Amino acid sequence: EAPAAMRAVLEVPGVTGQEVLRLPCDAANAKDAVTGLVRRIITTGDPPVTSAFNVLDLGKVAELFAAWRRGLKGVPPYYAVKCNSNPALLGALAALGSRFDCASPAEMDAVLALGVTADRIIYANPCKPESHIAYAASVGVGVATFDSVEELRKIKRFHPGCKLLLRLKVPDAGDAARWDLGTKYGALEDEVAPLLLAAQSAGLAVWGVAFHVGSEVSRVGVYDAAVQAARTAFAAAAALGMPRMHVLDIGGGFAAASFKDACAVINAALARHFGDMPDVEVIGEPGRYFAETPFALAARVCASTGDDGFYGTLCCVQHGYVPRPVPVAAACHSAADQRGGETRHLSTVFGPTCDSLDVVVQGYPLPELGIGDWLVFHDVGAYTTELSCNFNGFSAAEM
Ligand code: PLP
């Protein structure tokens, strides 16, 4: 449990900078407490908010970290920075002892700037520009993934001392998760031996294998097939007479809601397929698991639109996020969220750009809202601000 003083971080862009606030709440009522915090801020005007802002619940991050440790004992998480590179989140994770999965020099810099040492970073991008590989070498990031002969050639030239993990395509994973990463990445079963041989003849060290079952996994049983495929790759390396591999990277895909079920499958699969190799170091690369639920967005009603939307933080609606906005009234209005008995209308909430596709929800029951009222969206931390753009000159809520 995080100390109460760490419960929430609030950043109101351009007004207050970043503030750490104490929220008297526990895990069970954290979302209500965050909504209450937004209500308090907009009704007191302290700090004076005029545009969308995010609230990061650091206590939630600490809870998730503790749950990871309990669920996947001895499996260090390498947080996937691509999911949300918010500095307060990265700082909290670093303080909790997380390691990091970086896919580019910019992500490495963000993590190194926190004082995290390069040996706690994995360069988990199977397709890397040459200049990025050279950068990884220059800052001492020494473990990377690959899934092609071309990648081996580049690594041989620009980072020959790099330790490698062969990224596998997970069999039959297409429908297991919301985002199927297997269409782009991963060696097929019959490519494994040739790639291992190619690495060996290039004099490159293959430390182990990696996989990713796809982001936001719904069919958690897929982890079993993935661990089994990894074990087959370990056997292939042994059959080729290669030095013993000793790292298994189980990737990401985890969602907080199904984490326990995923852990049960993974722990059983590790016992079944790697029970005879207790020295194998198992690592993970969770992104969404740590970033999604700790963030809430407060967006202001500024016309018949909100001031954040489809091209901003709420770009996650394009990827299946189902928003359930909580209305919060501004002081100057009859309290929309206190009109409990009042009629709710099936409403459309638009984002601020001139595009009619900029729709956040449709047919959602809301009380009548006025300019200056607010909507709070919970669980908006995964692939949101990170994917947003400045279309029409509007930017996502900062922090
Ligand atoms: N590792 C790699 C290589 C990825 O590409 C991703 C997401 O794209 C992640 C980890 C994080 O995945 P997730 O957010 O589903 O945990």
TrEMBL record:
It comes from Digitaria exilis. Pfam families: Orn_Arg_deC_N, Orn_DAP_Arg_deC. Residues 59-291 form the Orn/DAP/Arg decarboxylase 2 N-terminal domain. The lineage of its organism: Eukaryota, Viridiplantae, Streptophyta, Embryophyta, Tracheophyta. Its EC number is 4.1.1.17. Pathway: Amine and polyamine biosynthesis; putrescine biosynthesis via L-ornithine pathway; putrescine from L-ornithine: step 1/1. Homodimer. Only the dimer is catalytically active, as the active sites are constructed of residues from both monomers. GO terms for biological process: putrescine biosynthetic process from arginine, via ornithine. This is ornithine decarboxylase. The active site is at C354 (proton donor). Belongs to the Orn/Lys/Arg decarboxylase class-II family. GO terms for cellular component: cytoplasm. The modification N6-(pyridoxal phosphate)lysine is found at K82.
